[in-house]
Design a protein that fits this description.
The protein is 28% helix and 33% strand. The protein has 655 residues and is an alpha+beta fold. Bound molecules: adenosine-5'-diphosphate.
């Protein structure tokens, strides 16, 4: 076995590979771009080397530089992860020439499967079922049109060198063919530098089912069950599961055999995935083979109990497969979702930003989280916008779905746009629950999966109001002012307070009355108790609500029943303070009585820190720091009656 390997990748997959290396006692060498200097994979590895600027082609794709780091660090092998150089035959070749083991298949297998058309020709010879179509070398447009007519519409034009859902065009009628061909070729030329295409029958409502294969150098080849990756947006996977809900044991065996035949036909070694497209009658056809570890490999690990990265390392080091086909386990059901920094509401546009808050469920035998980022890290525009993969396991598919919904409800992200709400709706959708998942599901159910902005229920605002008063109370308790005890607020009996919120176009006001034991909202008693940094246990009347509320600037993110709602707390005093010249003093917005002074004179405070509470028009109002600055001193005392416009606080903005 190797004693030191280099991981030519970043993000969650680099971290994933490092985890197995640790377990096996293999030292790890990370490479990173300047944009990733503080990244999690760099922090986890035993050694790390910078390989260039942020752009992938100047860093993670630099073959020479990566080989140089192998030599410098003494790494005996390279794990390429997925993407980047993982399916690059010249890289695999260069590793070989430099005496470094490429943890992947032989160069010839990568080459054979690299182009979709050549791969299909090979598969035809190996008698692997193919989608009816044309994958010849002759690219004459008239011939291609003729072939499309012969196959029958709709057809799919695919760039032979394509990948990642790019370079594909569906054509519904003969007169649309020429334009679609030209546009597909243009995209293929710019994206892959190769405009060869193939044509396939476009299957309606198909499933994407893929088989994990493994082969060793001794020629043993086995399949490790299937994965269903039909839940796709823009031909890209977002949810994967194993086993596939629609596949019988006989189909599993037939697909497994076809996949092993495909792998043998190209002299395969290591981990690979043979992707099939299956129609509603249960027929399946070869689409392509990915000659690397897949993003979704964890669902296979969960139902087999195997560590696929360990298998990759052992096979690359020359060991044989540890199991025969008959010994491959299949236990229970596993589902993975890809949590992306993207906005489903905006056509799944990627989002960038800092993960101001990032909380995930606690890992267990049922829940696994693979990620390359932590709270405080940045999602940059340079790389794939995946934040994490959340994987669950349970005995049945139904139980796994419930696990996933629970785990998604515990996944809280503030700072970048993300698809967690969308994923919850997708996994909870009746069609998904019933296993009726095909590649068109998301597009067809768009309106239910990505609902138009609707009015938020009153409860969300009540929760936000209680979170706001709880936060103020805690902040007051942290200051050492004698008035800071929350009870001081009720010195003159019950007080009423109106809190105003906005959410998009919607505005709402919540009136709270302070009572000796908590609050009254309308005539319902309410209580709020903090259980961790963001988690609150709230009771309103008979309702018990577990929620989390995270403040980020002016925004409040309310996490309730698996959905995240974003609101803004509109404090009239903060806003009044902002528009005025605040230098020197904050003044009383209306006549009233000072109830409590909340901060220590001389203290440095943050924007929004509560400074004092006054009672005016039977309501309690809190005066907040309008910006970061110094509380020089108070110009009033608790108990004072003040007129409107009277300076209350000597406040000095700035640090
Ligand atoms: P890529 O290499 O870009 O990922 P694939 O060939 O793997 O492209 O196809 C990606 C997705 O496109 C599939 O998962 C499936 O949803 C859809 N697709 C591909 N071929 C067909 C087909 N013949 N009919 C219907 N859908 C297809």
């Amino acid at each position: 076995m190797f004693t030191k390997i280099l991981i030519a990748n970043r993000g969650e997959i680099a971290c994933r590979v490092i985890a197995t290396c640790r377990k096996l006692g293999i030292r790890t060498v990370a490479v990173y771009s300047e944009a990733d200097a503080g990244a999690r994979h760099v922090r986890l590895a035993d050694e790390a080397y910078c390989v260039g600027p942020a752009a992938s082609r100047d860093s993670y794709l630099r073959v020479e530089r990566i080989l140089e780091v192998c030599k410098q660090s003494g790494a005996q092998a390279v794990h390429p992860g997925y993407g980047f150089l993982s399916e690059n035959e010249s890289f695999a070749q260069a590793c070989e020439e430099n005496g470094i083991v490429f943890i992947g298949p032989p160069v010839k297998s990568i080459r054979a499967m690299g182009l979709k058309s050549a791969a299909k020709a090979l598969m035809q010879q190996a008698k692997v079922p193919l989608v009816p179509g044309y994958h010849g070398a002759d690219q004459d447009p008239a011939l291609l049109q003729h072939e499309a007519d012969r196959i029958g519409y709709p057809v799919l034009i695919k760039a032979s060198a394509g990948g990642g859902g790019k370079g594909m065009r569906v054509v519904n009628a003969p007169n649309e063919f020429a334009a679609a061909l030209a546009s597909c070729q243009r995209e293929a030329r710019t994206s892959f530098g190769d405009d060869n295409v193939l044509i396939e029958k476009y299957l309606l409502q198909p499933r994407h089912i893929e088989i994990q294969v493994f082969a060793d150098k001794a020629g043993n080849t086995i399949s490790l069950n299937e994965r269903d990756c039909s839940a796709q947006r823009r031909h890209q996977k977002v949810v994967e599961e194993a086993p596939a809900p629609s596949v019988s044991a006989a189909q599993r065996a037939a697909m497994g055999k076809a996949a092993c035949d495909a792998a043998r036909a190209v002299g395969y070694v290591g981990a690979g995935t043979v992707e099939f497209i299956a129609d509603s009658q249960g027929n399946f056809y070869f689409m392509e083979m990915n000659t690397r570890l897949q993003v979704e490999h964890p669902v296979t690990e969960m139902i087999t109990g195997l560590d696929l990265v360990e298998w990759q390392l052992r096979i690359a080091a020359g060991e044989n497969l540890p199991l025969t086909q008959e010994q491959v386990p299949l236990n229970g059901h596993s589902i993975e979702v890809r949590i992306y920094a993207e906005e489903p509401e905006k056509g799944f546009l990627p989002s960038v930003g800092r993960l101001a808050y990032f909380q995930t469920p606690t890992p267990s035998a049922h829940v696994r989280l693979d990620t390359g980022v932590e709270q405080g890290d940045e999602i940059t525009p340079h790389y794939d916008p995946m934040i994490a993969k959340l994987i669950v396991w349970d005995r049945t598919r139904e139980a796994a779905i419930e696990r996933m919904l629970g785990a998604l409800a515990e996944t809280r992200i503030v700072g970048v746009g993300h698809n967690v709400n969308f994923l919850s709706r997708l996994v909870g959708h009746p069609a998904f629950r019933e296993g009726r998942v095909d590649t068109g599901l998301i597009e067809r159910e768009r309106a239910t999966l990505i609902p138009a902005v609707s009015e938020l229920p009153k409860e969300i605002f009540e929760v936000a109001a209680l979170a706001q008063v709880a936060a103020e109370r805690e902040q007051a308790a942290r200051s050492s002012s004698p008035w800071s005890i929350a009870d001081g607020w009720r010195i003159n009996g019950a007080q009423t307070r109106s809190l105003q919120f906005s959410a998009g176009e919607q505005t709402a006001t919540v009136s709270l009355r302070y009572t000796p034991t908590g609050y009254l909202i309308g005539d319902e008693p309410a209580r709020v108790q903090r259980t961790s940094d963001a988690d609150l246990r709230i009771t309103i009347g008979q309702r018990h609500i577990n929620t989390a509320v995270v403040k980020s600037g002016e925004q409040m993110h309310v996490f309730l029943r698996g959905q995240q709602h974003v609101l803004t707390y509109v404090d009239p005093l903060v806003h009044a303070g902002e528009s005025e010249e605040t230098q020197g003093g904050l003044t009383a917005p209306m006549p009233g009585k000072i109830i409590a002074l909340l901060a220590e004179p001389g203290a440095q405070v943050d924007k929004g820190a509560p400074l004092l509470v006054m009672e005016a028009m039977k309501m309690e109002l809190t005066v907040f720091a309008p910006s970061k600055g110094k509380l020089v001193g108070y110009l009033c005392n608790a108990g004072d009656q003040v007129k409107e416009g009277v300076p209350l606080v000597d406040f000095q903005p700035g640090t």
